[in-house]
Amino acid sequence: LFRSSVSAVQAKLNMFTAYSEEVVGRKAASEQLKPLLEQITAAGCPPMRQFSLNNRSGMITERFVELEKQGVEYLEHLHEELKRQQLMDEMRLEFAKRSESLNRWMEELIDTLTTAAAVDSISEAQQMLEQLEATDAEVAAHEAEQVKAITDLSHEALRLHGIFSVAVFLRGFPIDVSV
Question: Contact at 8 Å (CB) between 18 and 94?
């Protein structure tokens, strides 16, 4: 509906509150029409003119009812959009945290793997090599878990934006999206 930010939706809610207050004031003023119509009738207004004035008064009342109904619907949409935007903000924060965590982990892993090791014997070198090979599966599993979590968040964010297919979203971009 709005595709904006939390603050933009809150601004719209504030504007709607001010608008609603003005409508209430105008509705109160329109309710004074009925006594005026009765005075006009008592003063001897022609029947056709009375009919016309009563119709106009009825139309004004109907429009206020319709306006209230539309206002309730609009307010519901604003609240739904506010919840959606708040969820998107939470997801952006979670995405940033997970991305930073993955980045930090990758940097630590690169530092660990690029550190020079001094060995005194072939058996010591073989032992270090076995330790590195043993951590391969652990590293792959951790990396896959972190990447999947970030990918899942990305897909959920796209879904919240009404984009249900990453391929459609990325159409025309030379990016491999296979996961």
Answer: no
